[in-house]
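Why does residue order matter? Because the sequence determines the fold. Keep that principle in mind as you read this record.
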Amino acid sequence: MRVRYTLRARDDLDAIYDDLDQRDSEAAQAVKELIEQRIARLSMFPLMAPATDEPGIFELSIVRYPYMVYYELKGEDEVWIIHIRDTRRKSWRGIA
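Structure:
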């Protein structure tokens, strides 16, 4: 399966990475790598995360860190990352 990102998800990731770099640029690299590894694993195991209350949307937790990756499956060969949320911030309602 191929993993793709919506523009919103790319923006989310950029904002998270900027925040991490401002806090501690050395430690940020390890967190960035973990986020990317967990997302990349979806290409092999697209059903590894539980479904949400939103039909067709799955929620991948980045263990040990306050980030949640929301994604959906498109057809039989694509995983679309639709939103990446820092759970320390305001709650997220839906994909719109």
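The CA atoms of residues 20 and 27 lie 8 Å apart.
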